[in-house]
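Ops channel
N.P.: pipeline sanity check, posting one input/output pair.
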């Protein structure tokens, strides 16, 4: 089934079922990434997910923190401006 075929069905879901779908997808993607977000025993699933996310290191990259990227973007802007003035 194509993703585009799922959208109309998902749009018809109740708010609660959409949240359940988000939860299902989060667990599925986490499992594919090698993370186990399923709570042990009777622990609150939301608390377990928050604890696991808090212990996960996230890497955020921005071109603003990389001087070579800043220069490359600047060069592209200058070239685009020159091309539009030509």
């Amino acid at each position: 089934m194509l993703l585009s075929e799922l959208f109309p069905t998902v749009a018809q879901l109740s708010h609660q079922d959409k949240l359940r779908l988000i939860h299902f997808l989060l667990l599925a993607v986490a499992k594919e990434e090698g993370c186990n977000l399923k709570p042990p025993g009777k622990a609150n699933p939301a608390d377990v997910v928050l604890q696991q996310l808090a212990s996960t290191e996230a890497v955020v990259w921005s071109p603003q923190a990389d001087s070579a990227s800043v220069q490359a973007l600047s060069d592209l802007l200058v070239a685009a401006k020159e091309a539009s003035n030509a």
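N.P.: looks fine end to end. The chain is about 65% helix and 0% strand.
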